[in-house]
Amino acid sequence: FENFDSAGSSRAVDCLKYMLLSKIMMNAPEDVSAIINGKPGTRHSGAAIEAMRAVAAAHQARSLHDFEAALAAHQPQLRND
């Protein structure tokens, strides 16, 4: 992520999104909030990052309903990869 970010590449957002997804998969959804609220998240804020925030919140709440709602609300950002 940092290399794409420092080069100003549009792929930086994708890398950030995958980094957040890996935090969720490693059962560390609280780290997602820290990253999003930090320098990288504020610089690349947008629909893709908000989608990952919603997925992390659903994971943290252990709510399938919230996860399905996040998928429905953020379908282009979550299903087009």
Radius of gyration: 12 Å
In the predicted model, the low-confidence regions spanning at least 5 consecutive residues are: none
Oligomer: single chain
Shape: globular
Topology as a string of helices (H) and strands (E):
HHHHHHH
Mean pLDDT: 89
Kindly, what is the distance between the CA atoms of the first and last residues, rounded to a whole number of angstroms?
A: 17 Å
Main sheet? none
Beta-strand residue percentage: under 5%
Structural class: mainly alpha
Helix content bin: over 70%
The total count of helices amounts to: 7
Tell how many strands the DSSP assignment holds: 0
List keywords for this structure.
single chain, 81 residues, mainly alpha, 7 helices, 79% helix
Describe this structure in words.
The chain has 81 residues and is mainly alpha-helical. 79% of the residues lie in helices and 0% in strands. The chain is built from seven helices and no strands. The chain has helices at residues 2-6, 11-25, 29-37, 39-43, 47-61, 64-73, 75-79. The longest helix is centred in the N-terminal third of the chain and has 15 residues, at 11-25. It is globular and about 40 Å long. The two termini are 17 Å apart. The relative contact order is 0.14.
Write the layout of secondary structure elements.
Blueprint lengths: L1 H5 L4 H15 L3 H9 L1 H5 L3 H15 L2 H10 L1 H5 L2
Short description:
By secondary structure, the chain is an all-alpha fold.
